[in-house]
Each structure stands twice: as structure tokens, then as C-alpha cells.
TrEMBL record:
This is ATP-binding cassette domain-containing protein. It comes from the Bacteria. Residues 6-235 form the ABC transporter domain. Coiled coil: none annotated. PROSITE patterns: ABC_TRANSPORTER_1, ABC_TRANSPORTER_2. Belongs to the ABC transporter superfamily. Keywords: ATP-binding, Nodulation, Nucleotide-binding, Transport. The keyword Nucleotide-binding applies. The keyword Nucleotide-binding applies.
């Protein structure tokens, strides 16, 4: 069993002559919560697009749960769950119907799909909203349903791309806490964010800036007493 849920080694990416990622290396341990911290334009979404194969990765190596994305894409992607910035659920269908639809996309048979829907909605504390339309859920509940959708095929790692965008403070805290809880249950998380107070000292941390990894390790060790000050010093950003 590989040590890391995700391993990225020496990955670069260009848009024309613009280098959006420069020799990026990072790992996400199994069962860990790792924050990918960067300001707008740092390269977070580009990196996720390479991991999900939206973009072709031409340099370095990406492994998901030990499976090389270039040579074994099916095995790698089967172990990956993604919570996109954009919405992936159909607002006019019920929560359960959405889960079953996404289960079908993963080739999960109908009867098993219902079992999985109940299972993942319990994981995100939405068991009582199974038959509600997605349009009737609050913003926070919708994000939790998006996370449930990403869990339907029992992935080993979740990529979450600014999963709390647009949520109020309370819902934001709930969604981060829920994701941490999931990692205690065994799934790993790579949590892309630009919000420093979503990160705790015990988390893994990757600071990405202008396409480069500036720091990678334990958040408490990197940030010391003041993660904000450390982030500003490393990136040269101003508040
Ligand atoms: N399709 C594209 N064509 C050209 N440049 C792009 C494209 N997509 C992203 N970029 C550029 O690549 C850089 C990284 O963008 P990316 O969206 O990955 O950053 P991000 O960290 O996800 O930012 P945000 O928090 O705003 O989503 C930015 O300078 C962006 O303008």
C-alpha cells in the first residue's frame, strides 16, 4: 500500500509562453488534511486540472494512491473524488437522485447506488434531506451534498477547489470541519484555499505562489506563531 494518497513530482504547465506551474512537487499523506494555500492566480486550479486530466500533464509525474496518472489513468482517476468550484449537482433533482446519477456515471449498479447514496449522505450529515430538491438546500447544505457526490465511488483522496466560496462564516466552518472529520475516517483531502483561517497547525500545508511551491510541510512548523505573517513574508504579498 503506498504511503501517499497523492504524489506530484516536478510538474510544470504552460499556457502558451506563460508558465503557470514551475516544477511543482508535493505529497498528500494517506488520511491527511493538506491545505493548498495560494492567492488568486497562484496555480491551484491549474494543478487540479492536471490531476483530473482536464489538461494533459507533459512533465514530471503524478501518482494517485500509487497509480501513475499517465500510464494507469483509469486506476488513478477511480481513486480520486473532486469537489469543483462550479456546481456539479442538478438543482431540479432530489439529493438522492443526484447521488444515484453520479453513481451510475461511475458504473455503480442501481441497487448499490441507493445504498451508497444513503451512506455518503450520512457521512456529510444530510440523511434527513435525501428526498429534498437540491434547490431547496441552503448554500452550506449544497456544498455538503457536493462533497457527498464526490465520495460516491469511495475515493481515497478528495480534491476540493475553494469549497467554501460564497458561504457565510458558520457554513464555512462547518464544511471545513466536516472535511477534516472525513479524513479521520480514512479519506485524504487536498483543500485549495486562499483563506488562512481555514488552516490549523496540525494540517499539512503547501504554499503555492506564482506557480511555485514556496513551502511544504506541517502547517504549525511552517507558520510558527503567525501563519499570516509567514505567508506574507514568503509571498511578498501585502494585506
Ligand atoms: N486557460 C488559461 N489560459 C491562459 N492562462 C491561464 C489559463 N488558466 C489559468 N491561467 C493563468 O494561470 C495562472 C494560474 O491560474 P489558476 O486559475 O490555476 O490560479 P488559482 O490559484 O486557481 O486562482 P483562483 O484562486 O483565482 O482560482 C493565472 O495567472 C491565470 O491567469
Amino acid at each position: 500500500m503506498p504511503q501517499d494518497a497523492l504524489s506530484i513530482q516536478n510538474v510544470s504547465h504552460n499556457f502558451g509562453s506563460f508558465q503557470a506551474l514551475k516544477d511543482v512537487s508535493l505529497t498528500v499523506p494517506r488520511g491527511g488534511f493538506t491545505a493548498l494555500l495560494g492567492v488568486n492566480g497562484a496555480g491551484k486550479t491549474t494543478l487540479f486540472s492536471l490531476i483530473t486530466r482536464l489538461y494533459d500533464n507533459r512533465s514530471g509525474r503524478i501518482e494517485v494512491a500509487g497509480h501513475d496518472l499517465r500510464h494507469k489513468p483509469g486506476a488513478a482517476l477511480a481513486r480520486l473524488g473532486v469537489v469543483f468550484q462550479s456546481r456539479a449537482l442538478d438543482a431540479d433533482l432530489t439529493v438522492a437522485q443526484n447521488m444515484e446519477y453520479h453513481a451510475a456515471l461511475h458504473g455503480i449498479p442501481r441497487r448499490e447506488a441507493r445504498v451508497r447514496a444513503v451512506e455518503v449522505l450520512a457521512q456529510v450529515d444530510l440523511s434527513d434531506r435525501l428526498d429534498a430538491k437540491v434547490s431547496a438546500l441552503s448554500g452550506g447544505q449544497q456544498r455538503r451534498a457536493e462533497i457527498a457526490r464526490a465520495l460516491i465511488h469511495r475515493p481515497q483522496i478528495l480534491l476540493l477547489d475553494e469549497a467554501t466560496v460564497g458561504l457565510d462564516v458558520k457554513s464555512r466552518a462547518e464544511v471545513v470541519a466536516l472535511t477534516r472529520e472525513l479524513t479521520r475516517g480514512g479519506v485524504s483531502a487536498l483543500w485549495a484555499t486562499h483563506i488562512l483561517d481555514e488552516i490549523r497547525p496540525e494540517d499539512g500545508l503547501v504554499i503555492l505562489h506564482k506557480g511555485e511551491v514556496l513551502a511544504h510541510g506541517n502547517a504549525g512548523q511552517i507558520g510558527g506563531d503567525d501563519l499570516t505573517a509567514t505567508f506574507l513574508r514568503l509571498t511578498g504579498e501585502q494585506v
